[in-house]
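B., you asked whether I could sanity-check this one before it goes into the benchmark set. Here's the sequence:
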Amino acid sequence: MKVEAFAIKEKDKSFRVVNAGMFRDECDKLTPGRYRIIVEKKRSNKSQQQLGYLFACIYPLSQKLLLDAGWELPTIDEVDAYWKARFAEREIVNRDTGEIMKIPGLKRQFTTTDMMSYIESIRNYCSEYLGGYIPGPGEQTDINF
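And here's what the prediction gave me:
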């Protein structure tokens, strides 16, 4: 059984567990044994709305711009790999040789802020280098038939 609690540490105030009584009750229900308690800062993961905007708007529109610029990226998966290699890569180091290698980052590890930055990087690149405009997430667009 996993017992989880959230806590708050405000400036110049002590650390406090939200619903500490309920947390203590849950811990009291555990079977006898040794347990590990880890305290780590909570981070906001990217949202489903951000992913929806990325895959429904950013990737398809940028794919068209990339195709027009001569890149052969026929699938959204390839567009995803292209943008991750350009704007979401991270470095890994070989401990023995000191060699540094860059690999694409993982979107599943993105925070809300990471995702916002990633999306803005793609939009800015498309505007500056590919000559195309990708609307922002809250923009209304007209569809002419």
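One thing to flag: The longest strand covers residues 89-93. Otherwise nothing jumped out at me.
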